[in-house]
């Protein structure tokens, strides 16, 4: 194996093992920042040693053993005599006495609990949303600061500061490294799901930059969602979110044209939709709906959105889409979580069932909503409905306004093209 192959292997191992490694260390050290630092030390050691010695049979176990040794050394060097640190050091030493480095189980028995604690710690509400996203991608996604910065088109120092401040805040606020219980669990789980879906959405429809999509972020969010579904198998909304992301991700190849230009849903070549992802999504949706029924709670917001996505996925052609069902699902979603964005989407569905005038009537009631003041899809949808009604001058103005509002270059180009088409047709 060449040095290049070994470095690629190390990168792959790190992506797979880093979250579990950090989670196990955080359980023992009660400090997420220190756990990540020691995990990084183990990675550096692997980069130094594996090119000479070769990749061990159990690379995750090797990283865990190395990180634990570093933790013991650090505690000793620091002469930390407080009882807490002495107990931590004794625990680490006891584990090392019973573990052969070559065969140590890198995950430890309670790795699932450890990962779950790490998820809820990274997404703790004491942190701003942007910090939760950055920390989640760093600790659970295994991304470097540079990768996170490039994904969100933010300066690397800004992302680095967010991560440092987030870890400092967790330490200063003495946030417990635990999974909440009872009502707190439902509230915190909602935050965790929102962070994962925020990461997915940024990959699915990038808010800024030159690319319509950033597939890497979709993949990271999907991986996090799948992990969470394994850790919390009885939570319907976890499966609902996974179903939603699987089905939406199935369209990725069809959403971008040969030159990187956006391809809208009704114009996509559905033969390019990933049937495996659709199958996985429909299976997850079925599981979410069964769990919701058994609990007697009804479908949650992610499960309802997944059901809408499923209507599109089941339609072989755009014409076969069950828009009547979609209207009903958006109405149910709006009752559960009232939002002008949901109403805007319902307006699109209404236009497909009852014609563009019906959709426009609802859209016009949303034009003064302050929540949509800077939302570029409001004039974009309105422009589309006006175009279908033959009101081309008004449609052109709406497309131009939407183009000025979005920060995504690909989307700007598409909207300006649609405005030009209106001008030419008029």
TrEMBL record:
Residues 20-78 form the RNA polymerase sigma-70 region domain. Residues 188-288 form the DUF6596 domain. Residues 120-170 form the RNA polymerase sigma factor 70 region 4 type domain. It holds the Pfam family DUF6596. SUPFAM superfamilies: Sigma2 domain of RNA polymerase sigma factors, Sigma3 and sigma4 domains of RNA polymerase sigma factors. InterPro entries: DUF6596, RNA_pol_sigma-70_dom, RNA_pol_sigma70_r2, RNA_pol_sigma70_r4_t2, RNA_pol_sigma_r2, RNA_pol_sigma_r3/r4-like, WH-like_DNA-bd_sf. This is RNA polymerase sigma factor. It comes from Lysobacter stagni. The lineage of its organism: Bacteria, Pseudomonadati, Pseudomonadota, Gammaproteobacteria, Lysobacterales.
